[in-house]
Amino acid sequence: MILPRITMVCHGNIARSQVLHHYLQRSLIQLGVEADLFSCGTVPADAYTHADELLRDVQAQLDRRGLKAIVERTPWSAEAAEVVRRSDIVLAADEARRQDVLSRTGIDPTRVFLFYEYIGEGSRDFVDTFDHGKGRQHPDRYAGCFDKLERIAQRAASRISATLAGAGRRGAIWR
How many angstroms separate the Cα of 149 from the Cα of each of 21, 121, 142, 163, 173? Predict the structure, then answer.
């Protein structure tokens, strides 16, 4: 069986794509759907000097919410670009990330969606949780992102499940 490959992309792979990845994984498992998930950021590894501290906080937040996930950052690289190219669906946190993905990989734009767009809530950005001017997470945006991303993951998992079920009835494969 060929598993669907789904990639989540944000700026630094610190919060938005990282959190959506883990919530989507849990939601798909709950629906009995297997998928190959990947998340990455579009900036290089040295873009966040205190990435380890930021990731520890994301890990703690997910733990508090009962999601025991391993949080590891994947910055943009040739290897990450290749995974993105081979993805069936790419979920981009915002329009700038979508454009990064399209310009760096040349993939079919019909496979790249904004988070909200994929779940049918319009072409709007999922605002960055990091306050780049202050060099830290924006308290309000960061605190609210976990519940919002969990909801997006649940809706996305339902759509993915329905898509796979429909493909199976037609005898088609995902790719």
Answer: 9, 13, 11, 21, 28
Q: Which helix (H) or strand (E) holds 140?
A: helix 139-169
Are the C-beta atoms of 7 and 90 separated by less than 8 Å? yes
In 3D space, the residue among 171, 141, 155 whose CA is nearest the CA of residue 16 turns out to be 141
R_g of the chain computed on alpha carbons: 15
pTM: 0.93
Q: What is the pLDDT along the chain (175 residues), one digit of tens a residue?
A: 578 999 999 999 999 999 999 999 999 999 999 999 999 999 988 888 889 999 999 999 999 999 988 899 999 999 999 999 999 999 999 999 999 999 999 999 999 999 999 999 999 999 999 998 998 999 999 999 999 999 999 999 999 999 988 876 444 334 4
Q: How far, in Å, CA of 162 to CA of 156, rounded?
A: 10
Q: For residue 60, what are the β-bridge partners?
A: none
DSSP result, 31-88: TT---EEEEEESS-GGG-TTHHHHHHHHHHHHHHTT-----------HHHHHHHHT-S
Domains of the chain: 5-169 (3.40.50.2300)
